[in-house]
Queue: 2 jobs
Job 1
Amino acid sequence: EPEVTQTPSHQVTQMGQEVILRCVPISNHLYFYWYRQILGQKVEFLVSFYNNEISEKSEIFDDQFSVERPDGSNFTLKIRSTKLEDSAMYFCASSERENYEQYFGPGTRLTVT
Amino acid sequence: AQKVTQAQTEISVVEKEDVTLDCVYETRDTTYYLFWYKQPPSGELVFLIRRNSFDEQNEISGRYSWNFQKSTSSFNFTITASQVVDSAVYFCALSGGKIIFGKGTRLHILP
């Protein structure tokens, strides 16, 4: 069964460093998303991406964040200058069509020290 | 503004009991979609069900059932004959594009 994959599973970085989180969505899906979940809290939407551009973003997704689909399979989230409060689990998701069920990857746990 | 409220923060039941998880939503959209996701202790998010706003039929899938009532803006989830493996955090969510998640209900099934 096709699934969303994410690498790395855990990333530790120092405050101020740049990180890139990688995702491979399900191959026939057209809509891609990033969410984050601070430990023990709810899942928060960051950004949605369709047709090689951002279709929607939340207030969390400020200038330090960017997304890219560098090739036909990968979908990346870059955080330019990490802060302590960026520590969270970051989930990538994809869906076949807008408003269809989104399938989530296993997440990348980001720890900023 | 869209909002999802899961008033039950944590529920504990003994195995084989039935349990209902409540979800109330707010939206001004006439077309919207509702979801339930399960997050087991391993941390992944598992899709359970999707419902669109025009389909108020209740759904049953094995021990799981969902009751969608537009009149009360509720989309409740019932697990019948609960099992220890059902222990997880369950999220109700609302979509008009991005998904807005509720805060989740942590369900403990005690052996």
Job 2
Amino acid sequence: EAGVAQSPRYKIIEKRQSVAFWCNPISGHATLYWYQQILGQGPKLLIQFQNNGVVDDSQLPKDRFSAERLKGVDSTLKIQPAKLEDSAVYLCASSSRWGSMYNEQFFGPGTRLTVL
Amino acid sequence: GESVGLHLPTLSVQEGDNSIINCAYSNSASDYFIWYKQESGKGPQFIIDIRSNMDKRQGQRVTVLLNKTVKHLSLQIAATQPGDSAVYFCAENTRGESSYKLIFGSGTRLLVRP
């Protein structure tokens, strides 16, 4: 089966500009996650969707970050305006189940964002 | 190639030797743990998992050990191969307000010398 798709793979912007990332999860996966991975650290969850509803966005900096999954399939993550500290890899993951502890997440290749 | 992390702890092993990667977790209430492998330019890939009612679980060339008393996990890779070179993360699946979520550790870079 096809994996999680993300685009673009790389993006370079200047601070205060806007940027958007796109994710297409594995077909049939109802749960979608966005993570931020700063260089040298493990991924940190930003937001979790179950179908088109937000389950957890407690670590999303809502003053500048937004995400949507309008039709319950693909999703976009936006940063507006970007700051230098937003430089990171943004990973999308999906899973077939929700509410279960034993829930394998499948990760996409990520988008590497550099803010100058 | 693209670097996943520049300041990660690094374990360097000779090809064919066994590798042991360690991880401390934070939440004593966590019941499920996963090891991920992340190669340069790729997302994390599931390797093996273990539930809290187990002390040990074996896969193909990999073994995970869990010590709940000291909140410690280890990943053992037998007969390490060049393709095992990557950054390894442990993750604990913890209960949030309305769902479970993964909390990742800081990672260890494994370098395999030919």
